């Protein structure tokens, strides 16, 4: 892990130096990013011996495009463009820049054997911080993506022979979650022959993995990552550029799993016209000062097949926020809530200014009275960012006795739309005792934080 991070840093530094030196060559940011992506793909293919760089040096310099390089990998020119966006013909590469490309391609660090998901992190590093904040663009870190993929797929166990299994990331960014889903499906399939592996890769890219994003370059990155996971060139057919909330890109009730990290964007950041449109379209869940991410849960429900599952990492505010009430009511009615991981204020995604939670839901017409939710709720402690990977790993171990989080089951029927109280039966008992002795409900106390109140009251109650 440490080695990969060092490599990532080294390559990221090289790209930054390049941008700083040559950015004046074109004002077009996407052309610059496309150029750098082409360089990384070339290096990835050369380092992994899928193309012979030395043998094709001169031709690559003459035709420095993604399509040309991927065509070399395929052994024949591509029949259809890899990326459907309109592309301006690239300028011929001058000797100085070509020297830089050759140095990047041939010098260390090598990308041999690396997960191509690394390209997504390089793309994220190229985004400006203000742009990321304004648009809620923070990609899911590898370990959280891996947890979510294994958590949701465990209940499906899709083998490579399940032809119509479809998984969608409705706002796929640069493919972090789809990359993890791919790895999880491969891991679950066990040992396969090379021919079976190739067939599985083809099926995953042809029909199984779907992604949508408004950012065309993020879509390109997702496609590249998925393509580079195979030993033979296969074009991914399921990644589309567009607005999942307002366009009919994916057929309703056609996917088995929705996996996502929807943008968390408050009402102040959304353009008035767009917000009006969404408030009409998603009136059941998105009102007043609700959050854009609420629409994604509703949209996910529309796109899921009956009994399909949705897993999101999102802000935990919807659990208690006043404006989250319509969403909570909708979730309770339309889904059997399977699991909630409440990080309880721990900001496990670097740079993100909201408190995350993971929620896993199964689409149901009727919710059983006895439907229980598995809650994993982190204890409030001063964890340091260095320990986050370990914390995430502890989730995978399903350790009931963890001293990092408490894990308990809760009846869905006990949730109240006004606010979801995710407390263990013991804590809930204590809260009820407190409330019996006071003229108000603790949820109505100003957010002095229920947790702090409990910390104060528990010793008192215990001594009663
Ligand atoms: C928080 S990022 C998550 C990306 C990716 N799913 C991940 O986990 O790394 C949110 C993504 O949503 C995309 N997005 C925002 N609004 C969208 C919409 N209406 N339709 C599709 N994508 C959207 C942004 O471009 C951004 O890439």
Q: Would you write up a description of this structure?
A:
- The longest helix is centred in the first third of the chain and has 21 residues, at 2-22.
- Strands 3-2-1-4-5-7-6-8-9 form a nine-stranded mixed β-sheet, sandwiched between helices.
- Helix 6 (118-126) runs antiparallel to helix 11 (216-228) and helix 8 (142-154) packs parallel to helix 15 (388-396).
- Helices cover 45% and strands 13% of the residues.
- It is built from 17 helices and nine strands.
- The chain is of the alpha/beta class and 464 residues long.
- It has three domains: 1-114, no CATH class; 117-414, Rossmann fold; 427-462, no CATH class.
- S-adenosylmethionine is lined by residues 135-140, 169, 171-173, 176-177, 212-215, 218, 243-245, 260-261, 263.
- The site of S-adenosylmethionine has 23 residues, from helix 9 and strand 2.
Domains counted in the coordinates: how many? Answer: 3
The CATH architecture category of the largest domain equals 3-Layer(aba) Sandwich
> What is the CATH T-level topology of the largest domain?
Rossmann fold
Bound molecules: S-adenosylmethionine
Strand order of the largest sheet: 3-2-1-4-5-7-6-8-9
Q: Please, what is the oligomeric state?
A: single chain
Instruction: Summarize model confidence as the mean pLDDT.
Output: 86
| Low-confidence runs of at least 5 consecutive residues | 457-464
Biggest sheet: strands, sense, closure?
Answer: 9 strands, mixed
What would you call the structural class? alpha/beta
